[in-house]
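User: I'm new to structure prediction. If I give you an amino acid sequence, what do you actually give back? Let's try with this one:
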Amino acid sequence: MPDQYRTLARAGVHETEINKSRFICALAPVATETEAQDFIARVRKEHPGARHHCFAYVIGAEGGIQKASDDGEPGGTAGVPMLQMLVRREVRYVVAVVTRYFGGIKLGAGGLIRAYGGVVGETLDALGTITRQRFRLVTVTVDHQRAGRVENDLRTTGRAVREVTYGAEVRIEIGLPEAELDAFRGWLADATAGTALLEVGGEAYGDL
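Assistant: Good question. You get back a string of structure tokens that encode the predicted 3D arrangement of the chain. For your 208 residues, that looks like this:
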């Protein structure tokens, strides 16, 4: 697993017109290939009169799943340049759908490649990206007397507090960079006079 990856900041739509053809690019962050396919299907329903709905998506922190479709455009002129733009910008867990309303003027292969790749790049610029960092999931179990101060200290020092559960004791789940585990273990012992329990779990990604 890479230490971090870049993904789309938010879903959105951007449109451009080239030689009377409308190119409408919809981008969305997605966690799975199924989510990507569902998004593509929704865009198709939103534009039933369009001639083409070309798409590309990249799933996985390392970009392990990559797919593209020209949806009736000449081979390699739509989906591939869209996918290349996503890969070149190093974005992951993202799907792009470009809907084209044909304006009556043929663009040629080169023109289509520039149009489809270009509108994806413009949409990425408009929506922005965020970086997600790999964290180790850690659960701190502490008594109620110390829990408030521990949680406050965690938040004020910028720790990624993911969940707080109240029961006989208080469980605080946080995300920590692997390199900070030992230092955190020492800090927690000092902050709670050695009374807190620390459980180290699996890994996940969170916003940097």
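You can read the tokens as a compact description of the fold. Here is one thing that stands out. The helical segments are 33-46, 79-88, 108-127, 144-156, 181-191.
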